[in-house]
Amino acid sequence: MDLGSNIRTVRKRKGITIASICAATGLSQGFMSQVENNKTSPSISTLEQISKALDVPLAYLLLQTEERMQVTRQSERRQTSGGTENVSISHIGRTPHLRMTIVELSPGASSGDVPHAHEGEEVHVVVRGTVMAQQGEDLYELGEGDAFSWNASVPHRVWNAGSEPAIVLISVYTDSRREVDPL
Known about the structure:
Blueprint: H1 3-13, H2 18-25, H3 29-36, H4 44-54, H5 58-62, E1 78-81, E2 87-94, E3 98-105, E4 121-128, E5 130-135, E6 138-143, E7 147-151, E8 156-159, E9 166-173
Antiparallel strand pairs: 1-2, 2-3, 3-9, 4-7, 4-9, 5-6, 5-8
């Protein structure tokens, strides 16, 4: 963990001097310099004082770089295809356990010709159009604004049975940690 660099980055971004932090916390400038250069580790109570002086949550200072907020602009999304023909997948965000996609299904397009299963849990929101969702013996027609979820280890399938394109927002959670790759 690069705690000292996190503190220095926040302090500089906010235009706060080390002297100001020391005045607010009662810590010495030498100690703060050692903290910012990762030469010493502050106690939790000291770290709490520093976070208050910086006006940031303590937990924010403890985040690893890959745990911080990630932004993916619409123009930067990775585009793929899947299922049957005419299925467009836009990868909009992911963490080690969660990924989100926007799937566009042309009329007649589906997630596959037969139900499939994989690790994880899924939540779907129909943003536009009408889709059919099947898991085992359950089969539902869902329209704009409807949502459905399931354990993805049970074979499932989604298809556009309508005459207009359908758009579905999908969130998939897995217990297995996956590397966070750029979208």
